[in-house]
Design brief:
alpha/beta, 4-stranded parallel β-sheet, 13 helices, 8 strands, 44% helix
Length: 336
């Protein structure tokens, strides 16, 4: 049952004095609800699995190109890593590419933009059901904690089961050739853990981390008692939310870890942003550990060359964004 059907008062939380941060990104995502008819997608190969990467590229555009806070956070590598992991298990999932799919609508729902949410959900539901029927999909795999909750609880996908990628990897079995001799802790994303009334994902990420030989340690608050990374749904960005982020990262620092892992792009954004900002504030903690998504951590353990291959792929993608776009007229002028 959807929130509005349960009698919860739904209002647009962007109205009034408070504004949602990252307005350009949200204007772009919201606009998707108004764009285009549902396309006919060609299915070249049938598969029992489909994979939805979420809005990771949009986060990279926002955090790396339209903001002052560049940092080292890389969301796009989640997509690369997830596909490598699934293929390593012999899966060839139908990729629900964002060229024809839309945002799942998580943030719009929780921000109270019900009209936008309904349009995004109806579009995605209709298109996904068509694709699933044509391709024979039985399981939808997602690598985003918020997408996992949204598709599992707020969408009607018929008999198709929704799994987070860590569940699929653990249940289906995967062989890691390389080992990580590192000290690691893990952030339990709110949306796929303590805020999931059914199917919370606690054990699978931890077991996968141990499978690659890493030393796993818990922070002070973990599993159902884990604290938020700062704020869900990009609802705020202020000193209070950053204080929550900072406190959580201090918990990781107290464990003297090499890695703080998570399975939520929002957690990755907030931790990475805090890590970068604190470098330039004398009164703030310095965090030396790496903050990355669990899929990247695991994909680097597939074999000895996986880490280098991922790094080279991402470097090539980033380079295409850095190269200036030169018009044909300008090229002719320069050649004279």
């Amino acid at each position: 049952m959807r929130p509005e059907e349960m009698g919860f008062p739904m209002r647009d939380l962007t109205a009034g004095e408070r504004t949602v941060p990252h307005p350009i990104m949200f204007a772009t995502l919201d606009k998707e609800a108004e764009e285009g008819e549902i396309p006919e997608v060609e299915i070249r190969e049938r598969s029992e699995y489909a994979y939805y990467p979420g809005c990771v590229d949009y986060y990279d555009y926002e955090m790396q190109f339209s903001r002052d806070n560049f940092g080292e956070t890389d969301h796009g590598v989640i997509f690369d890593s997830s596909v490598k992991l699934l293929e390593a298990m012999g899966m060839k999932p139908i990729i629900l590419d964002r060229s024809f799919m839309k945002c799942c609508g998580h943030d719009q729902l929780w921000q109270g933009k019900i009209d936008v949410w309904n349009k995004l959900r109806e579009y995605n539901e209709t298109l996904m059901k068509r694709i699933f029927e044509k391709a024979g999909v039985k399981t939808l795999i997602v690598s985003c904690a918020e997408g996992y909750r949204t598709f599992k609880l707020d969408y009607d996908l018929g008999d198709v089961e929704v799994k987070h990628i860590t569940q699929a990897l653990y249940e289906e079995g995967i062989d890691f050739k390389a080992r990580k001799k590192s000290r690691v802790t893990y952030q339990d994303p709110c949306r796929m853990c303590r805020q999931m009334p059914v199917g919370p994902v606690y054990e699978e990420p931890r077991e996968l981390i141990r499978m690659v030989g890493a030393e796993y340690v818990e922070m002070e608050h973990f599993r159902a008692d884990a604290t938020c990374c700062g704020v869900a749904g990009m609802m705020y960005c202020n000193e209070r939310t950053k204080g929550i982020t900072n406190d959580r990262m201090i918990e990781a620092k107290e464990q003297e870890v090499d890695y703080l892992l998570t399975a939520c792009p929002k957690c990755l954004t907030h931790f990475g942003c805090q890590q970068h900002e604190n470098l330039y504030r004398e009164d703030r903690e310095r965090f030396e550990f790496k903050v990355i998504d669990i899929t990247q951590f695991l994909a680097e353990c597939l074999d000895e060359t996986s880490a280098k291959a991922l790094a080279m792929e991402r470097e090539a993608v980033e380079q295409t964004f850095k190269e200036p776009v030169v018009s044909e007229a300008a090229q002719k002028e320069a050649s004279r």
